[in-house]
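ok so for the tutorial part 2 we go from a plain amino acid sequence to predicted structure tokens. step 1 is just haveing the sequence, like this:
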Amino acid sequence: MLAMATFVGFAVLVTALIHLYLWKRLVRDTTRPGRWRKAGGVAALLLALLVPATMVGTRNGSYWLAWPGYLWLALMFYLLVLLLVLEVPVAVAKLVLRRRERAATGALGEPAPVPVGGGGRTDTATTGHVAEPAATGPTATSPVALAEPPAAPVAVGSAEPPPGADSGPRAAGPQDDPAGHRPDHDPSRRLLLARGAAIFAGLTAAGVTGYGVRTAMGPPRLDRVRIPLAKLPRGMDGLRIATVSDIHLGPLRGRAHTERIVAMINRLDADLVAVVGDLVDGSVAELGAAAEPLRDLRSRYGSFFVTGNHEYYSGVEEWVREVDRLGLRVLQNERQEIRARGGVLDLAGVNDVTAAGTGLAAPADYAAALGDRDPSRPVVLLAHQPVAAQEAAKFGVDLQLSGHTHGGQMVPFNLLVKLQQPVVSGLGEVDGTKVYVTNGAGFWGPPVRVGAPPQVTLVELRAP
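step 2 — the prediction. this is what the tokens look like for a chain of 464 residues:
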């Protein structure tokens, strides 16, 4: 209970900090004080509250929160990523503007030299007229000369320029700010820069999210992969395992989603079907009807299931019984001999690693599933999380089939998944054990997939 409270508290804190950052960049930096800024602040607060409300509400049957809440979660994620990426170029642009303003202020702040006294020409850019040369000799007392009044001298430091003087840029004065200095930036330019960054981030985030929704809600992609196993008998060469994980029946995915996946798998005419966890996000009472089409799965040597972490959030014991009723063999820390084409293969399955400490079902037991077996036979392990391979490798597992990662689901989130799982998507190897990770056929949380399309995989085992 303490661990759960700590996690919830941390999640709320992170959500609040993200929305505070988004408010600053999208509202405060792009608006002047007034009603628009206030409206933006209220909107940011409501959206911040929507995230935890969706997480809690959808688990308690308030499915109407799912679409707005999870869509905002995806949009929030991409706004955050894009604005963080834009921090560097925006900071550089601000620095350039600041230096230009300082340079311009310094140039305009130096007063041009003004000649004092008689003789010579006065610069027209300063006085706006040309002074006549001083009179000499007799002409100084001529009647004509006396008839013309002398030009008024230009007083140095005069507050008012003489008539005709140029009224161009002036030097800095105390009226620019209370301290008598001009600001080192142009506020209007900074506002324009902030608005440009916000518009770019907003439009890009919306476009990426829209593309991700279309991908996530579309049909799964069929991938075919050939994996050689050194111990596979020649007679079993080409044995095919239709592999699917992370179907995630729940508030945004129902019976039609299951029917489409089942139809897709049945068209493959596979030897085995492996459903590698995270079938549901809800109880049997809520989603039993949505899972019902699984009874129509067809394969030559059987369909098998192992639990994922989301089964432990949804009533794992009920779901084990329900899946078994639908005709899938649930491998709970056990293995099954697959005799086909004159050869034998061990198909093993372990409970998800999250089972440890839940009190709902036995934790993953690799010794029970893999110990005391004929080491000359090839063994394929079904385990929801790729990280299970770290233990499975100790028992000489030839191939592990996993899901859980969703391939990252939303790029660049896949970079964070690498910190926890040894393989994120596709075929990899852990301590000599080959690990194939399918992207999964559904999604969790936001109905968005970017860079990791939904997937059903046909794994073909090849003999050496």
